[in-house]
Amino acid sequence: MSQQRHGSTSGNGDRAGAVPAFPDLPEATIARLPEYLRALHNLGEGGADTISSEGLAAAAGVNSAKLRKDLSHLGSYGTRGVGYDVALLIEQIEYVLGLDQRRAVGLVGVGNLGHALAGYDGFASRGFKIVALFDADPAKVGERIHGLVVRHIDELPAVAAEETLAIGVIATPAGAAQAVADELVAAGVTSILNFAPCVLSVPANVDVRKVDLAIELQILSFHEHRKASLTALPGGRSATGAGNQEAVGS
């Protein structure tokens, strides 16, 4: 599928999306594309065929200028007076994110979090399928979770080759996460989603995304502390406006 094919018409005339077959995107743009995709799917399911940049930006929680710049990297400029074609833009973003291909996922660690992740329907609806579950605890090996039998971590290399694992998910305690990451890398997995509260050391060709819920709660705690402190200032200054402005500008 060629990215050139997806170029839409701009408001200035016949401006095709002259971008490479695979555009070199800024990291910040890559991070926002899934938000645009989520918003577009919601709009499409609601019956929308087109959407203005302002409407899509509001649905995605960004400003419209930033959205237009992001989408211009894909060769998508919309049409003046019409906006963006929802179905076409979904196709463009899914292509760039590689969601037009099946991504096999292996999950290591089937504690409470692992159980929840294994049963999350949102993965399948976005092109990801958990094909294997692993754990080092003999008491958990052989357990059936959402149709999958938990395998021992020692089976990881064989399963990774058999299933062509694209992504490894680590849901183990922090103390075990680095060893699991090493095993995933040795098995040829070069993309890792890490839920363990630790920093992983991996080769340069391996991409790691970290999800630490405790850190997110600590950041929210900071904002609560700041709002309470500002409210207590002499003169009764309200923190609501200042907090909102900073959140938008971040």
TrEMBL record:
Predominant place of localization: cytoplasm
InterPro entries assigned to the protein according to its UniProt record, in alphabetical order: CoA-bd, NAD(P)-bd_dom_sf, Rex_actinobacterial-type, Rex_DNA-bd_C_dom, Tscrpt_rep_Rex, WH-like_DNA-bd_sf, WH_DNA-bd_sf
Positions annotated to bind NAD(+): 109-114
DNA-binding residues (ranges): 35-74
Gene Ontology MF annotations: DNA binding; DNA-binding transcription factor activity
Domain spans labelled CoA-binding: 98-199
GO terms under cellular component: cytoplasm
Subcellular compartments: Cytoplasm
Keyword DNA-binding part of the UniProt annotation: yes
GO biological process, one term: negative regulation of DNA-templated transcription
Record's keyword terms, sorted: Cytoplasm, DNA-binding, NAD, Repressor, Transcription, Transcription regulation
Keyword RNA-binding belongs to the record: no
General function of this protein: Modulates transcription in response to changes in cellular NADH/NAD(+) redox state.
Known partners and oligomeric status: Homodimer.
Family: Belongs to the transcriptional regulatory Rex family.
Name recorded for this polypeptide: Redox-sensing transcriptional repressor Rex
Lineage: Bacteria, Bacillati, Actinomycetota, Actinomycetes, Micromonosporales
Gene (name only): rex
